[in-house]
From TrEMBL, chain A:
Membrane topology: Multi-pass membrane protein
Protein's name in the database: Amino acid ABC transporter permease
CDD domains attached to this UniProt entry: TM_PBP2 (cd06261)
Keywords: Amino-acid transport, Cell membrane, Membrane, Transmembrane, Transmembrane helix, Transport
UniProtKB/TrEMBL annotation, chain B:
Family that this chain belongs to: Belongs to the binding-protein-dependent transport system permease family. HisMQ subfamily.
Keywords of this entry: Cell membrane, Membrane, Transmembrane, Transmembrane helix, Transport
NCBIfam families: HEQRo_perm_3TM
PANTHER family: INNER MEMBRANE AMINO-ACID ABC TRANSPORTER PERMEASE PROTEIN YHDY, MEMBRANE COMPONENT OF AMINO ACID ABC TRANSPORTER
First-listed, main subcellular location of the protein, grouped into a coarse class: membrane
Parts of the chain that traverse the membrane: 38-61, 82-99, 105-123, 130-148, 154-173, 204-223, 235-260, 267-288, 308-327, 364-392, 404-427
Subcellular location: Cell inner membrane; Cell membrane
Topology in membrane: Multi-pass membrane protein
Coiled-coil ranges per UniProt: none
Organism: Falsiroseomonas oleicola
UniProt xrefs under InterPro entries: AA_ABC_transptr_permease_3TM (IPR010065), ArtM/GltK/GlnP/TcyL/YhdX-like (IPR043429), MetI-like (IPR000515)
Protein name: Amino acid ABC transporter permease
Domain annotation ABC transmembrane type-1: ranges: 236-426
Length: 400, 443
């Protein structure tokens, strides 16, 4: 008698409602079906209401208004815009302004955040305490309040153009805004830019080569220093060889206001300053947590192996701290971009203010406008999370 | 010669050098340990002096404390000192908004009830803390909305308000009973009636609760509060209402969404992920705008939704999406062994989640949850952009008052202090809670 006969398949239990209700698959399908019906029902209800309401109010949901002339002026535009340009152009102007604020804010917030974060780790008690209270006070008050306070309390109270605050003869601050000299590229300036791009590519390639050789042979090469020198020297050489083809358009006080140069309104200054300072608190905490997350044993181990202190920082502490710092840092950058939408409170024409407020009120096309605004922010944040996820995958600790 | 044993008596140690102890030593170690450090210290002292002396001079030394209007302030000190009488005159409005003066006691009573309701949660001998907490979250809103809004009572409405009042009465009765006798309210009444067995005791307990309900129902139906429409709500009161509802709603909703996101059912996961990612990727102000302009379109014709409700819906959905990500982080931090052990004990999904996973996960999440609450509290300022009169809008209104025209900085300074105190206390309490709950984890 073979042993296999001893193993028999259990008889299929009789089909009863009780067994069905306890079957994992049946349950799962049932729950999902219920959820699906509820969600789709809710959406259908909302959509049908919206369609009915729009029909009674004579509203339209199409995108045909994008070609229509917007017919209002915008106080500050990064890209050229004239009154009478289309709504699509308004949308682009809004995006450009939002991205400009975000880019400048990110740079300042990072620098400030790094300084304050290192200050919180200082061995100096006074610096540590000052940095701590800087963070506590600014982190525990609303950003909108800070933006409005900077606007009404500082940038609106600046003197008239005639009595402008002169910052080293380069930049002027008054209650109309901040004025900088604007670069005017002359003949052949394109070549300088080309040299800059070439130098950048060269520096990156050099760095890659140096890293490969370091991994293969252990012989280091100061690729970062050489790269920086390359990026600085090459364009300067080309610039000088071509006879300095760049002039500056200086702002000059004429009559009641400055003429020429490049200027930004007070609202822009208030927004950038408030966003940078507010975000710098969070960045400072991230930097501090990142550096503290690297155990002291790492430093001691490096010392025991005879690694120089400067190299300990570069090859042991920083790579490990970066792993902790980078992901929350990037989400802070994203937060800063989203928070720039508070510009509406002080009348800076960012995307939300110029598109979701002015254009919506002018054209009455609520649905396409809301959808386009949210679409822009979704695209930005999806792009950022894609970058983050790929970074996280690259630096993931491979355990066991 | 001498027979006395030779005893080794060490020479007493030299005292530590005076430069390493006391104030001097501390300063040498912490402020002047090296030349760059000393420079930093002087720089720090300078910054501290500039900032603090500017604030103190403006807010205290040069400030005007008594004046009829802003003109007088400006005549006295110009812009070099603060003009506090303007803020003082507006304090009632900053706190209660445009709420009718003779009805303000209702707001005060409402918040006192909230505090009284929460007190038993901190009393050590009270055992039914979970029930009290749940009753607070579920039943207080009815009571509060009647106190704050008032108006006509329909039968259903009265029944719900009475439910709130009963829950409040039960909370205190049961807390007192537990502190004094170690028995809940129901069991105590049953004991007094001399219940023979558990079944009868339970019935008597529920009967006592029902009697309490009838009593409160009668009392509540006698109340007659004037209706105060939500457009009169404002100031700190409105800020607390919006953030309170947002906090109470976002935590349970966030838990549900996070569980949905980790669910094995693909459809539920997709819905939850879409909701969370959509609401997290756009700024709150766009959501507020969207609900402000589109909620009337979404609902059938004739259904009126007031501005406050639109803002509250937006804040709640936004906050729950953020909370969901925090809860997900907490759930992910629970080792897989806990899930497996719960399954091995024969616990189903709901049992293992509510008894094993969530209690551990919530403890890890406390700092982030409180951080989120603080963020929510600060974000309520955004409702001023869509035209609600929260604390920030009220403070801007001071400068538009003809008597105090242009008075902006002082009210901002004052409400900054209010926001700071609330947020800072919340964060310090969370640190404290984290330390106490982490006691058992420490090695």
């Amino acid at each position: 008698m073979s042993q296999s006969t001893a193993i028999r398949r259990p008889a299929t239990p009789p089909l009863r409602l009780g067994t069905l209700a306890n079957d994992a698959t049946v349950r799962s399908v049932f729950y999902q079906a219920v959820t699906f019906v509820c969600v789709v029902g809710l959406i259908w209800y909302l959509v049908s209401n919206t369609i009915a309401n729009m029909a009674t109010r004579g509203m339209s949901a199409g995108f045909d208004f994008l070609d229509v002339s917007a017919g209002f002026n915008i106080a500050f535009t990064l890209i050229p815009y004239r009154e009478g340009d289309s709504y699509l152009r308004v949308f682009q102007v809004g995006i450009a302004n939002t991205l400009l604020v975000a880019a400048i804010g990110v740079v300042f917030a990072s620098i400030l955040g790094l300084v304050v974060g290192l200050g919180r780790l200082s061995t100096n008690w006074l610096i540590r305490t000052l940095a701590r209270w800087y963070v506590e006070i600014l982190r525990n008050t609303p950003l909108l309040l800070q933006i409005i306070a900077w606007y009404f309390g500082v940038f609106n109270l600046l003197p008239l153009p005639r009595a402008s605050v002169d910052l080293g003869g380069v930049m002027y601050l008054n209650n109309r805004g901040a004025y900088f000299p604007a670069p005017v590229p002359g003949e052949g300036f394109g070549l300088v830019l080309l040299a800059l791009v070439a130098a950048l590519i060269g520096a990156v390639l050099l760095h890659l080569w140096a890293r490969q050789r370091f991994r293969a042979t252990g012989r280091p090469f100061p690729s970062v220093l050489v790269g920086i020198a390359l990026v600085l020297v090459a364009p300067t050489l080309v610039y000088l060889l071509l006879g300095a083809p760049l002039t500056w358009d200086w702002p000059v006080l004429r009559g009641f206001n400055f003429q020429g140069g490049f200027s930004v309104p007070p609202a822009f200054c208030a927004l950038v300053v408030a966003l940078s300072i507010y975000t710098s608190c969070f960045i400072a905490e991230i930097v501090r947590a990142g550096i503290q997350s690297v155990g002291h044993g790492q430093t001691e181990a490096a010392r025991a192996l005879g690694v120089k202190p400067s190299r300990t920082m570069r090859f042991i502490i920083l790579p490990q701290a970066m792993r902790v710092i980078i992901p929350p840092l990037i989400s802070q950058y994203l937060n800063l971009t989203k928070n720039s939408s508070l510009a509406i409170a002080i009348g800076f024409p960012d995307l939300v203010s110029v598109w979701m407020n002015t254009s919506l009120n002018q054209s009455g096309r609520a649905i396409p406008i809301v959808a386009m605004t949210m679409g822009f922010y979704c695209v930005v944040s999806l792009a950022v999370s894609f970058v983050l996820n790929s970074y996280n995958r690259r630096i993931l600790l491979r355990e066991r | 010669m001498s027979d006395a044993p030779l005893v080794f008596a060490p020479r007493p140690a030299d005292p530590p050098p005076p430069s390493t102890i006391g104030v001097v030593g501390w300063m040498r170690a912490n402020l002047f340990s090296s030349v760059p450090n000393a420079i930093l210290t002087f720089l720090g002292i300078y910054i501290f002096y500039v900032v603090v002396s500017a604030i103190v001079n403006w807010a205290l030394v040069n400030a005007v404390w008594e004046a009829e209007n802003r003109r007088q302030c400006l005549d006295m000190v110009g812009r070099s000192g603060a003009c506090w009488p303007g803020v003082a005159a507006w304090i009632p409005n900053l706190i209660y908004g445009l709420y009718p003066k003779d009805q303000v006691w209702r707001i005060n009573t409402g918040f006192l009830i909230l505090i009284a309701w929460a007190v038993p949660l901190w009393l050590p001998r009270v055992r039914s803390k979970v029930a009290i907490g749940l009753s607070l979250v579920l039943a207080y809103p009815f009571l509060a909305s009647y106190f704050f809004h008032g108006g006509q009572q329909t039968l259903v409405w009265t029944a719900l308000i009475a439910l709130g009042a009963t829950a409040f009465a039960w909370t205190w009765l049961t807390s007192l009973a537990e502190m004094r006798f170690g028995l809940g309210f129901g069991p105590l009444v049953a004991r007094l009636f001399g219940a023979a067995d558990d079944e009868r005791a339970r019935r008597i307990g529920w009967g006592a609760l029902a009697a309490l309900y009838v009593l409160t129902f009668v009392i509540v139906s006698q109340l007659d509060f004037v209706e105060v429409q939500t457009r009169f709500w404002g100031g700190l009161f409105l800020t607390l209402v919006i953030s309170g509802i947002g906090i109470a709603f976002s935590l349970p909703a966030g838990v549900v969404l996070a569980l949905g996101r980790r669910s094995e059912m693909p459809l539920i996961r997709v819905f939850c992920v879409t909701f969370i990612e959509l609401f997290r990727s756009v700024p709150l102000i766009t959501i507020l705008f969207m609900f402000n302009t589109m909620l009337p379109l979404f609902l059938p014709e004739g259904v009126e939704v007031n501005r406050l409700l639109r803002a509250i819906v937006a804040v709640c959905l936004f906050a729950s999406a953020y909370m969901a990500e925090i809860v997900r982080g907490g759930l992910q931090a629970i080792p897989k062994g806990q899930y497996e052990a719960a399954a091995a004990m024969g616990l189903g999904f709901w049992q293992s989640t509510s008894l094993i996973i969530l209690p551990q996960a919530l403890r890890i999440m406390i700092p982030s949850i409180v951080g989120n609450f603080i963020g929510l509290f600060k974000d309520t300022t955004l409702v001023s952009i869509i035209g609600l009169f929260d604390l920030l809008s009220m403070s801007r209104a001071v400068g538009e008052d003809t008597r105090w025209l242009g008075l902006f900085i002082e009210p901002f300074f004052f409400i900054t202090l209010i926001y700071f105190v609330f947020c800072f206390l919340m964060s310090q309490y969370s640190l404290n809670l984290e330390r106490r709950l982490g006691e058992g984890q420490r090695r």
